[in-house]
Every structure is written in C-alpha cells, then in structure tokens.
C-alpha cells in the first residue's frame, strides 16, 4: 500500500520538482487537465507585456524586422524540434492543428498520386476513436478532391495491420488517443505503412511534451500537433507541422499563402513554394499568442523528455495503484493501458456516473475532465504535478465516491 | 495654400480628436502605417493581463465556459458586423485572411457547381494587382480541385465589366487596393456579377474600419478581411469571414474542423456542419490574440464609420494638397484616386527613389511603408492621426527631398 508519506518522499527525490515554481497554479487546485490546456508559465505575463508594449506599441510595424515576427514560426519550430525527434528546419509553429492536418494530408495524398506506382491508392486509414476533428478534416478534404478517396476506420489498434494494405494511401493516426491515453508504436506502424506502400501521418496533440518522440528515427512521414496542451503555450496557441527533410522537396499543400512563398515580398502574382519547411506556412500569424509558446519551450529546455517520461510513468503508475487500492469498492474501470510502452501521460477511468463524479471533483479543486462515454480523464504533467498531488486527488475522489457526494442529475456544460 | 495653423485649427474642430488618447503611440513618431499594422489601444495591455492571469492562469480549462472562449469568434464577429454592414450572426473572427479566403472561394465555387444553370463556369476573375496571397490561395485551390478552374486576371478595374462574363463563376476582388488605395464600387460590381450569373467575393483587408461598408446593401455574396490593420487588433490578430444569412444554408467549405460542427462536443466521427455562421469555423483559435481584437472594436463603438470617413477624406485631401503644394519641384506621382468615391484611407506616391526616401522618412519618425515598384504608401487612420501630423509629415518629406537627405543605395529590409 502506498501512503501519503511515500508520495511526499518521492517529491523530495524528484529532480523536476523545482520546475513547478515556474508555473502559476491557483491555490487550492490540483490541476490534472494539462492534457487539455497546459498551465501558465509565469514568464508568459512578462513576455506578453513586452510583445504588446515594446514590440507592438512602440516599435509598431518595424517589429516585423526588429523583433523577428516574420521568422517566429520557424524559430520556435526549431526550438520545438528536439522534443519531437526532428531536425532544425523541419518544424514550424503556425495555424491550427486542424488546418495543419489538412495541409499534411493533402500533401501526403499528392505525394502518392504523383508516384505512378502508388497513384491508384484511394484509402485513408484511421481509427473511429481518433479525435473527431482529424476525421472531419479528412472527410472535408476527400469530399472536395472528389477523386474517390475514402476513409477506412478501424475500431481497435489491432486492426491497423490488416487495414493498412495495398489500397491505403495514408495512415492518419493520433499517436496517443485523447480519450483512452493509448499510445501507438509509431516506429512499427510507420514501418508497416512503408512495407505496404503507404505513408504514415501522425497527430501528436497528446504526445508533444508528454512522451519522448523520435519522428525521424521512427520513419514517420509527416506530423502535426498542438502547443496548448503539454507544451503550455497558452489557450489555443498556434499548432505545429513537421515535414522531414526527406519529403520537403515534394511537399506541396493547397493552402498556398504568402508566408509559404519563395519570395514573399516580391509581390509576384504567381505562387512559387519556398524551399524547406516554410512551404508549410500560409498566412500572417497571431503574434501575441505565438510568442507565448516560447515560455513553455523555455521550461522544457531545462530538462529532458527522458526525465519527464520517467516521472510521467511514475505519476500515472501511482495514480492507478492508489485508485485501485483506495476506491476498490467502486465501479471504476481502467481504460488506459497498464503497459508503459502503450501509455501516454494521462489515465482514464470509466464510472457509470463519470460526468457527475468529475463535476464533484472539480468543485473540490481536482480538475480533470470528462469525455463521452462515461470517461473521467486525468492528465499528468511532470513539470508541475507532484506525487502528493496524486495522493490528494485520489483521496478526494475516494471521499466523493464513499459518500456519494455527486449529483447524478448533473448536466454537461456546453464546453469541456 | 494650407498652413500649419489651418491644420491645428481643424484638429480643434475634430470630434474624433479625443480618441487618440485611447492609443499608445510612441513619442516622436507620426504613424502613417495603420494600413499595415494598426496602433495599440491602451486597453490591450490590461486585457492581455486579464486573459493571461485570470482566465488562463487561474480559471484554466474552465475559461472555455466561464470566459466564453468557445464563443469568442462569434461574439466578436457580432461586434464587428455593424462596421461591415452585416447582420448579427453573419461574421466570425477566426483563422487568417488567407485561410478564410480559401474557405469562401471554395464555398462560392461549390455553390455555383451545385446549381445546374451555373455549374459549367470555370473562371475566377481577379486583378493582377490584387494582394498576391489572394491570388496564391485561388491558384492553390484551383490546382487541387483539378476541375479546370482558371484565374482570369485583369490589369485595370475598367476591364472587370468585360471579364466578368458568362464563364465567370466568382469575381474575387479586394475592395481597396493595398498598393494604390483604389476603392472599387462594391454595389455596382456585385450587381454586374449577378447579372452575369457570377458571385462576388470581397477581400476587405484595407476596407474594414477604413471606409463605410454595406455588404448586405451592396448585394455582396461573401467577404473576408483582416483585423490587424485599421481595426487595431494587434499583430497578426485573427481575421474575419462574412457569410450572409441568404447563403448560409448552402455554404459548405472544405476546412471542416470541429469548431464548425453542429454538435462539437458529441465527438461524433462524422462531420455535420453547424447551422449559421459557425460552419465557417474550423479549429481552436489563439485566444490571447483573439481577445485583443475587442479592444480595437471598443474604440470604434464610440464613433461611427461615417464620422471616420469624413475625417479620413479630409486627412487624405490635406495630405495630397500639401505634398503637391510643398514638394511640387520633386518627381512625385500621385497613384491614389483623387475622386473620393474611389479612394480608400491611404495615399500612395511614386518617387524614383521611393524606397530610399521612405527609409529617410522612417529615420525622421514618419512611418509609412514602401511597395514595389517605387511606391511610398501612407495610411491615414482617423482614430489617432491629426491634421497637424499630416502637416508635420509633409514638412519632413519636403525637407528630405529638398536636401536630398536619402541614401539612394539603401537596400530593402527583408520585411515590411
């Protein structure tokens, strides 16, 4: 049995514990929703003040040069790259995950269509349980291309091997499932894709900053992801897209805006894509939100994804163990894999009154979230979550369940 | 002849003069580049602090509900709508102008393709002098659709009448030209489009907040635009898209992300577009940059576009007159129409050493910008530009030209 004292002892031994001081976390809250919106780096306020007063207010239009606004997507992409197993010049931070997925999927289909040996492929493989917007974007693209592309959705990761076949143009998968926390084997699936002649496109929304990634080493073809979850970039901060050096020359995407032009200030009426990763850009980016992404990356630069992963697995192991020890009499079902290699940085449990229980937890200061059907989702962010937090969260959960202190008539909010 | 005293007297009579106090403008600068990046509303700093500390930092994920983040694109769109001659529920602030143009153009082509009487049309009419990214996005869309769509570019507004013909699916025009300041007759061109069976899609990047607009009255079909120029939303602040009530039911666009879904939190794997303007949304928006847009709109709410237009025309009239009076011996060529109805809120002059002269102006604190070929561009923003500013700017221009105090070997910066 694990005690609170054990948890406190682990905190004393935790090399990441000091990083918590770099985040602004409200008093009385145990925040287990960093997989939805990362907490605020304290530095973000001063950074915003600087961008707003000095760069926008004082230097005004000159800041496109003097503050490097125009290069910000590339400069921040280069800072993010090491967390992804990507090289300098392979990542930009720009637009939204949905828009970047559209670019990447369109480019992947085009790469296949322009290869006579692969041009007949018309299937996009994904999972029915993928984050819905990924499926929506694929549906939108397929319908507009009107060339017979169809989505083949599997119901279990086990079916991917068979589904990714000689008809498959692209496997479009989210590396860590938003609901279950299941983590795919990126290298094995990418390798299977290539053996079948397909390309592997990965959504890293729940992976970047959460688990070690080695995009190049895994042989992935394209990737997109989000900066406002584990990367702590701020609400809705711009997303990223990765195009490896091996594919950049043939990467073409339909959102061909001026930031992706070879000579954006020549004002040529004809589009010519920039060399390198810049061709994944489109239009002018929201500079204040974009600049704040750096505050999160600055904290990652003080540790390593390996250290983060060690603590993440320890936190989720302890959480699972404590829930199973202390809430054993309640109908909780573990959804997240116990196997480390298959687990992201979240833990999900079902409960028949999952929504109501989560509302009660939030009212008591333990912030997780709820996803249909019946899933309580708890995200663990090693940069600012302690082992004592885990103990205290489970203790509050136990108390709520033991005393049935939740309103089974609770209705879902519009959002979250 | 106009004197500085005349200018000061006009400032004393100017009902908009007090609004300048709501902007943070650096000492010693006459800012005539609000057509590229609007100045900073003083309120933007406190608003950013609130969003970052209270909404992100303290309320965290709950702010999607409590701070109304999810509804922000619609709520701000409704606040912008009156400046455009649009109705409540017809505008959202989201994504970039380029991305919104892609959505709008795709939707317009689809509307035509689904009408048997118009389905054969394959021509998109625009101007060669349009802002290049608009042409790039149209090229990208046309190439990816691969259904024979072609861009027909005219070299002069006079040619539009003939170019918009029975083959034309959509006329995609920027209402006020970014380089010349030429303003199209939106009602006449939209009407001509309809008479020919075409749709009229307008880019309002240099119109919104600059000139009175009556989208519904003019019979326009779709519009997009930018909030970081005359609307003072901040660097790269999210753009807008207008879909009139009359077209919403058949408006479909390929960037079908979860924010445009009928039930975004049901997590349904199939896309179904939301009713109304929400179907123009796609992915999660950059909340800090988006929230700052409201600070600019708050200032517009204290006056009217008619009052702004009166002062804009007075400022540009005085600027043209003063340049022609005081710099008459220099080879300056007025590019912007003298006719009020054809003029936006900027004035452009050519000069053989336009780039060098503009650099000398900027070094003396008069910030305009330069556009190829040989064009010096001066934007006039009635919310914070005074008649005395106009006098002083022309006086500095005169001095630079009279004394040839510019470096004809000056090389262009990477950006601006």
UniProtKB/TrEMBL annotation, chains A, B:
NCBIfam families: kynureninase
Pathway assignment: Amino-acid degradation; L-kynurenine degradation; L-alanine and anthranilate from L-kynurenine: step 1/1; Cofactor biosynthesis; NAD(+) biosynthesis; quinolinate from L-kynurenine: step 2/3
Function as written in the Swiss-Prot or TrEMBL entry: Catalyzes the cleavage of L-kynurenine (L-Kyn) and L-3-hydroxykynurenine (L-3OHKyn) into anthranilic acid (AA) and 3-hydroxyanthranilic acid (3-OHAA), respectively.
Species of the source: Janthinobacterium agaricidamnosum
Presence of the UniProt keyword Hydrolase in the record: yes
Keyword Hydrolase: yes
Protein name stated in the entry: Kynureninase
Recorded name of the encoding gene: kynU
The family this protein is said to belong to: Belongs to the kynureninase family.
GO biological process, one term: L-kynurenine catabolic process
